[in-house]
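tokens incoming
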């Protein structure tokens, strides 16, 4: 069994929540799980408790609140009362308090004009801050899929998240990368307080990974595969301390853990981001 390494987070989006995967994750040193109230048709917490309830104390568990079952489809809400109730329900369904609760894609509900949106966001953050103060979770954070919609709504005097999760990797555009940097600066977050997600933009089988070679980001290829190199580069686009990645295959998870040995060339990252910005400026608005 490898020693625990917090840099790889096992994401359970689209996961079958099988015990085999989680036991293998522990053997690989992956001891952080990331799920959400709405994963597995709003049954993720119960499924985890049934499949690996005895193993959950060995994991750091993060979940997310913000999506709720609706009559026809899931609905999003930043209502503080609903958010607090969702955190309480998560602890009950998991059989333990989560270590971390993310406000899930707050930009989904933030459609009105500033400063109204800013007030709504502050109140939602305050609800999670209150949940942590009550012992319903050890800490709280924000998980944002589209940071470009969130960057102008931050109130630095309001509650500060302990973790920010954003999209990471080569397929994240300049707009979202720059917006993530703005959030990081506004909340004065350290690298250890930053998580990346969706490092492959959805799937390692996407044709883009046959057309580009992410190993250009490495100082030496170290015999890493393109998938491994893309995962390693995701820690620098933007700079994050951990990356959440989903898989149901222990072999794939082991491959990604092995990618951590690669060293990223910071100059190449800076040049790549500069190219992304140039391309973004050249495109018609």
């Amino acid at each position: 069994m490898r020693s625990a390494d917090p840099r790889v987070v096992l994401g359970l989006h689209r996961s079958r929540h099988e015990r085999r995967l989680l036991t293998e994750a522990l053997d690989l040193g992956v001891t952080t799980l990331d799920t959400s109230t709405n994963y597995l048709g709003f049954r993720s917490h119960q499924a985890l408790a049934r499949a690996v309830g005895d193993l959950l104390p060995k994991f750091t568990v993060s979940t997310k609140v913000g999506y709720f079952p609706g009559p026809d489809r899931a609905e999003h809400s930043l209502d503080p009362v609903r958010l607090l109730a969702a955190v309480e329900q998560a602890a009950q369904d998991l059989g333990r308090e989560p270590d971390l609760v993310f406000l899930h894609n707050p930009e989904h509900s933030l459609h009105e004009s500033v400063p109204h949106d800013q007030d709504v966001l502050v109140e939602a953050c305050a609800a999670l801050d209150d949940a942590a103060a009550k012992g319903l979770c050890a800490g709280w954070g924000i998980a944002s899929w589209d940071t470009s919609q969130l960057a102008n709504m931050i109130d630095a005097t309001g509650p500060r998240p302990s973790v920010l999760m954003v999209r990471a990797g080569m397929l994240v555009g300049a707009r979202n990368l720059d917006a993530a940097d703005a959030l990081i600066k506004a909340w004065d977050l350290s690298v250890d307080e930053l998580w990346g997600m969706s490092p492959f933009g959805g799937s390692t089988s996407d044709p883009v990974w046959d057309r580009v070679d992410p190993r250009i980001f490495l100082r030496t290829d170290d015999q890493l595969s393109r998938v491994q190199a893309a995962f390693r580069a995701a820690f620098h686009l933007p700079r994050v301390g951990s990356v959440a990645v989903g898989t149901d295959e222990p072999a794939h998870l082991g491959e990604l853990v092995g990618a951590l040995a690669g060293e990223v060339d910071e100059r190449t990252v800076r040049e790549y981001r500069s190219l992304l910005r140039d391309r973004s400026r050249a495109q018609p608005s």
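note: The chain has a mean pLDDT of 93.
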